[in-house]
Every structure is written in C-alpha cells, then in structure tokens.
Amino acid sequence: AQKITQTQPGMFVQEKEAVTLDCTYDTSDPSYGLFWYKQPSSGEMIFLIYQGSYDQQNATEGRYSLNFQKARKSANLVISASQLGDSAMYFCAILREAGTALIFGKGTTLSVSS
Amino acid sequence: DSGVTQTPKHLITATGQRVTLRCSPRSGDLSVYWYQQSLDQGLQFLIQYYNGEERAKGNILERFSAQQFPDLHSELNLSSLELGDSALYFCASSGGVRTDTQYFGPGTRLTVL
C-alpha cells in the first residue's frame, strides 16, 4: 500500500523568504507520480507541481520546485520568495499509475506574514 | 480555474435525506474521481469512472453511489445521510494530454444537520 507522510502540521514564514514543505512517501511500485496541491481557505484544490519517479531532473513550476530524493523517498516542495497569497494548506499526494486514485498526506498549513 | 465544475457549492440538509452532487469534467477528460475531505479522515478517494464505466472503488459507503453519463458528467448520490457525512466533496478529472494529473473542481460543502 502507498502512504504519504507530512510531518509538519504548520509552518510560518515571512514574505520573500523561501520555505520547504516536507513530504515522505512509501511505495513498492517501481513507477509512480508525486504531486503537490494547494488548498486556500476558500477550499478549492489547486494543482501545483508533478514529479514522475523516472524523471531525471527535479520539477519546477515558477516559484515552486520539487526536491526529489528517490533513495530517501522524499519529495519536498520548495516555495521561493513567499507571498501573502501562499498562505494555505499544502497537500502532497502519490499516484501509482495514470488513471488511478491519488493518496494524500494530511497536509501542512503554511502561514506567510508581512 | 481548473475547468472542472461542481454544483451545488453548498448543501445543507437533514439526517436521513438524500442528495445528489454534480460534476462536469474538463473538456476532453474521460476519468472522473470523487473524493471526500473531512476533518477526521482527511482526503479520501471514493470512486472513479472512466468513459462511463466504474473503474475503481475506494472507501465509499454502500449508502453512496455514483454514475457517469454519456456526456461524461458525473453525479454522486448520498442517501440516508448521517451527521458524519458532513464534509467537502471534490470531483477531479484527468485524461487529457497530461493523463496522470488530476484537476479538482471547487468542491461541494455538505452539511448534515
């Protein structure tokens, strides 16, 4: 069975600082995908970034990057130059293969202050 | 905007009642997933449909059912509602160019009184 662990229930950062949100995973599948989603207080789930298990390079999407360490089974999200609008809950998720269900972690709340 | 639409946005009902949640996937997406988010259980997968056929089941109660119609929209039916069914219900879709990424709708917040 697959499992995602997010050990940081809450993180606090000031504007313009970088922040790393931790995610470790457990799977026995040789091929899988890792995702990060953002859930603001309004409730919607916003896709941020994807990393395939066979991707050679770490994924990047604008201010978001994924620090993927396959041997350690970690997929940390790095947000550079934090903004007030980054305040939200962040979920890490794993996908066994395309067309199957996502398994989510419990999430990390990020608070950005000015 | 993810391109996935869900109605209604909010739903308040009483125990024992039945409700229907509706989802329209992104244009071109064939897979629809339903997830439930509650404070105690977190985000849990309920059920998946692919091009009209049920593809996978997760932690879905027998009181809950779903279907996907020929136009690919999907409905989640919740019956004999209990207080514990109060949650945020998400629909997600995938199956476009990037077939593994699931895009979520805005959710339906169900409150059972």
Name the average pLDDT of chain A: 95
Order of helices and strands of chain A: EEEEEEEEEEEE
Number of DSSP helices of chain B?
A: 0
Largest inter-chain contact set: A-B, 22 and 28 residues
Structural class of chain A: mainly beta
Give an account of the 3D structure:
The complex is a heterodimer of chains A (114) and B (113). With 114 residues, chain A is mainly β. Helices cover 0% and strands 52% of the residues of chain A. Chain A has strands spanning 3-5, 10-14, 19-21, 24-26, 33-39, 46-52, 60-61, 64-69, 74-79, 88-95, 102-104, 108-113. In chain A, the strands form 3 sheets. In chain A, strands 2, 5, 6, 10, 11 and 12 form a 6-stranded mixed β-sheet that branches. Chain A is globular, with a radius of gyration of 14 Å. Chain A starts with a strand and ends with a strand. The mean pLDDT of chain A is 95. Chain B is mainly β. Helix content of chain B is 0%, strand content 53%. Chain B has no helices and 11 strands. In chain B, the strands form 2 sheets. In chain B, strands 2, 4, 5, 6, 9, 10 and 11 form a 7-stranded mixed β-sheet that branches. Chain B has a 4-stranded antiparallel β-sheet with strand order 1-3-8-7, with no helix packed on it. In chain B, a hairpin with an 8-residue loop joins strand 9 and strand 10. Chain B is globular, with a radius of gyration of 13 Å. Chains A and B meet through strand 5, strand 6 and strand 11 of A and strand 4, strand 5, strand 9 and strand 10 of B.
Overview features:
heterodimer; A: 114 residues; mainly beta; 6-stranded mixed beta sheet; 4-stranded antiparallel beta sheet; globular; B: 113 residues; 7-stranded mixed beta sheet; 0% helix
